[in-house]
Amino acid sequence: MYKVKTFNLISSKGLERFSRDKYEVSSDASQPHAILLRSHKLHNEVLDNSVLAVARAGAGVNNVPVADYSKRGIAVFNTPGANANAVKELVLAGMLLSSRGIKPGIDHVSTLHNISDAAELHKTLEAQKKQFSGSELKGKTLGIIGLGAIGSLVADMALALGMKVVGFDPALSIEAAWRLSSEVQRAENMHALLAKCDYVSLHVPAIEPTIHMINADALAQAKEGMVLVNFARESIVDPEAVANALDKRILRTYVCDFPEPVFYGREDVIAMPHIGASTAEAEENCAMMAADQIMDFLENGNIKNSVNFPNVAMAREEGQRIIFANENVPKVLGNVLSVLADHNVNVIDMVNKSRGDLAYNIIDVEKMENGHVIDAINSIEHVTSVRLIN
Ligand SMILES: NC(=O)C1=CN([C@@H]2O[C@H](COP(=O)(O)OP(=O)(O)OC[C@H]3O[C@@H](n4cnc5c(N)ncnc54)[C@H](O)[C@@H]3O)[C@@H](O)[C@H]2O)C=CC1
Ligand SMILES: O=C(O)CCC(=O)C(=O)O
C-alpha cells in the first residue's frame, strides 16, 4: 500500500485517480511515500525519511525546499501549464479593473440603496457616471516579463484584444519559443521593456535572479503612468519601491495577487487573495496531473515534469525494477553494476540520465533471490536514494 499525504484542498478529481486498493491518501498519513500539496510551505516541515516524491499541484515550487530534497534523492514535481488559463483570465480582469471605473462604480452603486424610486436612481447614476470613466486596452502596449505557459497565453489574449505586446525572457525554452506568437516583439532587456509599456505583467518564477527584480532601479525606467500586474509572486517586487512609484505617479496602479501591509488603504492598488489559479478547471487539471505523476513515479519509477530530476520513462519488463538516484559524479553507475554482478543479478534493461548535479537510474533485473542487493547499493558512495519495485 502506498501512502500519500496531502496539504491544502486538493480537487477530488485528482484524489480519485488514486485507486483505493493501492493507495491511502489523507492529510494525516504517517510515513508517507509522497506528498501532494498546493501552496503549503514545506520549508519548516520535518519530512519523514519515507518520502520519495513531492508533487506541487501548480506551477510555483518556491514553497518547497527543492535543493535540500534533491540532496536526499526526493523527486519534486509540478504541473506545468495546468493552471495557466485561469491566471491568464484573471490578468485580463486585473487590466480591466485598472483601466475602467469598475470597482469604484460598483461600490458607488451600492451606496445609493436609499433611493427607492427607479427613475430617480437612473437620473442620479447618469449624472454621476463621468467619475467612473476609463480607457481602453486596445492600442496600448503590454510588456510581459516571463513568456512561459502563462506569459504566452497572456500574449495571445492581449494581441486578440488589439494590444501591442513586448516580451522579455532571457531563459525562454525552445518549446515555449515555438508556442509564442511571432507578433510578440522582443525586448533586449527588462529596462527597455519597462520604458515603453503602458501595462507590464509579471510571469516569472520566484527564484534567486527574479527576487525584487522590480525594484527602485527598475521602476525608475518605467513609462510614466504604467500599470504593473503581478500574478507571479510577492517576492518578485520590492513592495516599498512599488509604493514609492505609486506615490510619484510613475505607476498608475499596482494589480496583484499578493496583498502586502504597505498597500493597505491605497486606492491605486488592486489586491486579490492569491486566487490566480482558483478555478474548478485549474484545480482539477493540477490535481489530476500531479496525481498521475506521483503514481507513475511510485509504481514504475518514471519521471515526468520534475523540477529537480531528469524526465525518465522506461516500459516495464518482467522481473524487478531497481531505482536509484545519485550525485552526478563518475563511477557510481559502474559501482552499482558491479554490485549486481557480484550478486549474480542479470540486467534486462536500464536507463541512466542526469540533470545538473543529480543522476537518476532505472535498472530492470531478473527476479533476485538475494535480499541484500538494495542495502549494498545504498551503501555505495554518492547514492542518495534506492528502492526496489516488484
Ligand atoms: N497567482 C497564482 O495563483 C499563480 C501564480 N503562478 C506563478 O507564475 C509563475 C510562472 O508560471 P508559468 O508561466 O506556469 O511558468 P513557466 O515555467 O511556464 O514560465 C516561466 C517563464 O519565466 C521565464 N524566466 C525565468 N527567469 C526569468 C527572468 N529573470 N526574466 C524573465 N523571464 C524569466 C522562464 O524562462 C519561463 O519561460 C509561477 O512560477 C508561479 O510563481 C503560477 C500559477 C498560478
Ligand atoms: O494552488 C494555488 O491556488 C496556487 C497556484 C500557484 O500559485 C501556482 O501554481 O504557482
TrEMBL record:
Keywords: NAD, Oxidoreductase. Coiled coil: none annotated. Pathway: Amino-acid biosynthesis; L-serine biosynthesis; L-serine from 3-phospho-D-glycerate: step 1/3. PROSITE patterns: ACT, D_2_HYDROXYACID_DH_1. InterPro entries: ACT-like_dom_sf, ACT_dom, D-isomer_2_OHA_DH_cat_dom, D-isomer_DH_CS1, D-isomer_DH_NAD-bd, NAD(P)-bd_dom_sf. Transmembrane segments: none annotated. GO terms for molecular function: NAD binding; phosphoglycerate dehydrogenase activity. The keyword NAD applies. Its EC number is 1.1.1.399, 1.1.1.95. Gene3D superfamilies: 3.30.70.260, NAD(P)-binding Rossmann-like Domain (3.40.50.720). The keyword Cell cycle does not apply. It catalyses: (R)-2-hydroxyglutarate + NAD(+) = 2-oxoglutarate + NADH + H(+); (2R)-3-phosphoglycerate + NAD(+) = 3-phosphooxypyruvate + NADH + H(+). Residues 321-390 form the ACT domain. Belongs to the D-isomer specific 2-hydroxyacid dehydrogenase family. Catalyzes the reversible oxidation of 3-phospho-D-glycerate to 3-phosphonooxypyruvate, the first step of the phosphorylated L-serine biosynthesis pathway. Also catalyzes the reversible oxidation of 2-hydroxyglutarate to 2-oxoglutarate. This is D-3-phosphoglycerate dehydrogenase. It comes from Agaribacter marinus.
